[in-house]
Amino acid sequence: MNRKIKIGLLGAGVVGSGVIKTLAHNPSIEIKKIGVKDLNKKRDLNGYVDKSAFTTNINDIITDPEIEIIVEVLGGLTPTKDIVMQAIQNKKHIVTANKDLIATYGAELFDLAKKMGVQIQFEASVCGGIPIINTLKQTLIANKFKKIIGILNGTTNYILSEMLNKKMNFEMCLKEAQREGYAEPDPINDISGKDVAYKIAILASIAFGERIKIEDVFYEGIEKISLADVFLAEDLGYRLKLIGMVEQEESGLLDIRVHPSFIKKNSTLASVFGANNGVLIKGDLVGELTFIGPGAGSMPTASSILGDINMLRAQLASSKNPNPLFVCQHSDYAKIKPISETENGYFLRIQTEDKSGVVGQVGTIFGNADVSIDTLTQRGINPDGSASITILTHVVKEKKLQKAISEVKKLNTIKQVENVIRVLE
After folding, report:
1. Around Cβ 76, how many Cβ atoms within 10 Å?
2. What confidence category does residue 1 fall into, taking pLDDT thresholds of 50, 70 and 90?
3. What pTM was estimated for this model as a whole?
4. Known catalytic residue: 199?
5. Given 199, 337, 397, 403, which residue is catalytic?
């Protein structure tokens, strides 16, 4: 642990700058070279690193014999994947915050790393500063996991929190999130749920020991969420959150998905507000654990990256052989349960004509589809003369619910099914 280790850094944006500032005066870790696209870009790094460390030639970094660890914070898939592959082929250990890369190409990268005798550490790829990945891989390794459910995206959680707290609509809260730096100029990966799909796929692979094909993970975002949905959830004893979840059934199938959900207001995840993340884990030995903290940001993410660097540094001081706990040991792909076969309660908000008999027609259709209704409520008359009704169902298979919805839409008195949100008990 006394020897100094030299690393190469790919990227000097928000996260990369946090890594540079964190390691600037570390006597044991030296950032020898930093790969960037533009040497002339203004960076708030005076006093932290010499300008001579920056280079636009990535090969200067991945082929440098003195550099043992490459820290990748470029993000994205292209050209990042090819760069990381080349670094591994040059026998560099990898520390990355790139959930897109790990979720999409993890199998290929981990197989190559095993072949080349190097390791890939990726704590920062999920939940920023929350130490969830290495907790699953090491501290809780004796557990057989039952379920993981989490709020895994700070941008969407911030938007939903602001909608509730400030009574502003989705579009206004998204613009506020962008002004505050919580949302990207193009926020599609966040608000569509894709970002959470990457993260829950990574957690599921670790917890259940099987690889996940990212294209098999169902995801749905918050673009259709209205103020009415947020406050009706509150009225019914729930809170509206974007949830990523995975649960293994007795058959071995994984129920893994991402979507807006009504969750009980007394649950621990319901208290996760702002840009924070929260992860609830159920294990057979440890029971239920919840981790809450900053899911993104320069310094929280740098904290996880530095933790990975130090783990590698400690191991390299005693052995060149990869620690088995840090090496991907599984090769089989999980069988994923189709979303149509999942079972949930459901909340529906429907706009209808204000005519007698509509509620009875809707109830009859749901009954014929074997969908049991908990509550069906008319919420009043809208300015355009239409009526709003809401339905809360008991737990039912998704395909039965969708069949009922398709039949409801055929009624001449139905203007639109405005939203359908799953309810997690």
Report:
1. 10
2. low
3. 0.96
4. yes
5. 199
